[in-house]
Amino acid sequence: MADGASLTALSVWENQRGSKLTIETIDPTTGVLTGNYINNAAGYGCIGSPYRVVGYVYGNLIGWSVRWSNAHEDCQSITSWTGYYQNGTITTQWELVYGTQINDGADMFTSVAK
Ligand code: BTN
Predict the structure, then answer these.
(1) Which atom in ligand 1 lies closest to the alpha carbon of residue 107?
(2) pLDDT for 60-101, tens place per residue?
(3) pLDDT for residue 114
(4) Closest C-alpha to ligand 1, atom 15
(5) CA dihedral in degrees (17, 9, 26, 22; nearest 10)?
(6) Is the ipTM of this complex over 0.95?
(7) What is the pLDDT of residue 84?
(8) Domains (range + CATH), the chain
(9) Among the atoms of ligand 1, which is closest to the Cα of residue 17?
(10) Helix or strand or coil: residue 47?
(11) What is the C-alpha separation between 46 and 49, in angstroms, rounded?
């Protein structure tokens, strides 16, 4: 059964690296998601300021991307996460492209107070 109840607008999610995804809007017809992402992961650039998020929600499924360029810093890279919501957790796998290099990994997000 799809359990998408907690993938809602104005929810905030934190991963094991301390980064935060804020879902601002989800279009009920198209599933298009907008929001922002604050990277707090050690060993990466573009830390501590919000970057735009665009993506999709379909029931308990979610995918979003971040282009790591804002007024503070430009890391010339893009990350896309794909995953699902279950039992209070968003489980994802991600890919980060920079130049001709693609790195991958896994992030788990739990809901936090706004
Ligand atoms: C960069 O260093 O090029 C931009 C920042 C990348 C941060 C990555 S995205 C996947 C992983 N999960 C996070 O929350 N941060 C890192």
Answers:
(1) 12
(2) 999 999 999 999 999 999 999 999 999 999 999 999 999 999
(3) 73
(4) 41
(5) -20
(6) yes
(7) 98
(8) 11-112 (2.40.128.30)
(9) 14
(10) coil
(11) 7
